[in-house]
Prior knowledge:
By secondary structure, this protein is mostly helical. The chain contains 20 helices and 4 strands. A two-stranded antiparallel sheet has the order 1-4. The protein has a two-stranded antiparallel sheet with strand order 2-3. The longest helix is centred in the middle third of the chain and has 33 residues, at 302-334.
Amino acid sequence: MPPVPSNTASARFDNWFHLTERGSTRSREIRGGLVTFFTMAYILALNPLIIGTAADKNGKLLNGAPKFLDAAGTTLNTAAIDDNKMMVMAVTAFVAAIMTIAMGIWGRFPMGIATGLGINSLLAYVVAPTMTWSQAMGLVVWEGVLILVFVLTGVREMIFRAVPNSLRSAISVGIGLFIAFVGFVDSGVIRRGSGTPVTLGVGGSLEGWPIFLCLFGFLLLVVLHQRHVKGSMLIAIIGTSLLGVIIEAIAHLGPQGEKNPTGWALNVPRLPGVEDFRLPDLSLLGHVDLFGGFLVDGHFHVGAFLGTLLVVFSLMLADFFDTMGTVVAIGDHAGILDETGNPEHLKGILVVDALAAVAGGLGSASSATGYVESAAGVGEGARTGIASIVTGIGFLLAMFLSPIVSIIPSEAAAPVLVFVGFLMMAQVTHIDWKHVEEGLPAFLGMVLMPFAYSITTGIGAGLIMFCITKTIAGKARKIHPLLWVVAALFVVYFVQSLLMRLFGQM
Length: 506
């Protein structure tokens, strides 16, 4: 790429985003940003299904309407639930749009931000049944504030830099395995087994048009990639989605369920009608109670207060280390880490991520965080924050064009996740497998991410084992003091359920 004169607006744009420095182009960033959006877009359908259908302790939805029409809880308030899901979709897209664009401008990093799946499930199924929805979202805000304090005081960055190189490589590989597993599960290629934790397809067999579509998309992507076709991942997603629309129009498969195991896993690909479009409803913004979650019926109770603090701590720890793992993996995959193994503008990245958690709580969308699916955009060529801006614009448009987004079935995005998982496996060669104190923590970290379906679990197990094996090897002095603190916090994290029961008895 020829150098750009330094006194032009184009040069200032280039220098701010490090476009030339990172060997990228605007077209590559646009393609990468679009791929990231399409691989993340499932959250617009999934988040409403999780927090948009769950009731709080009063039996009410996020919009304040009762979930059931009768006291016995036998008749669903379907109209209110449908309205609530559309409202959740709108705020989910809004928060994702604003914070992803912020990541692009200030973090200058190719990472999309949206509601985190682990935290939204925790809120819906564990936290909300014990308090009101506004109180639960208040805890999310405090979680984000706590992370922001760690960032501004430099503690988060210090922890970030203290992680040993072997674990950094393991995190990249583990996340690759994790997103590949997500792809297999989302496509229905891997499912819950009968007598086994998981199995292949339907009863050990690959059957159904959706799975065929996924396999077709994967082979198409391999062919395009091998032939060095620009935009191969984007082409694969769009092409596979359009084929899915045709299949559904002919076969009328419908959604996957117990009686329809060969249906579509998440979105049913169909062309939307005019009646499907509506203006976004953002009335859930600001429905937050910052202090009510720490009280019991308006009164202070030691056990409840400590239990709530533990919930905030769990939310914070999951968000904290999910982001760390995601940033390391994406930066490594993109080849934009510095000599210390960290991305440029690390503090800006971490500040935006912390504010994303706060924004998610204030927006009633649940905590927002960096998405590992961003690695798909990096695989398409994204290297700068421009890609994040494109992804954010995609979410902004999705607020108004959600029916179009729903055309993309998970079976079309899954092949990209699997393929990117393959690309991220290359980092496994950077791990010292000859020494147990390096290899065993790395092994536990990378395998527990997909096995436990949690990036945080893998990182925590790896850090704890690193401290243990280094100590056994007589190298305890080489462990950064912060890692001892983090390892101890992870021990608390892993036994949080026991501690919450103990606090509840106080």
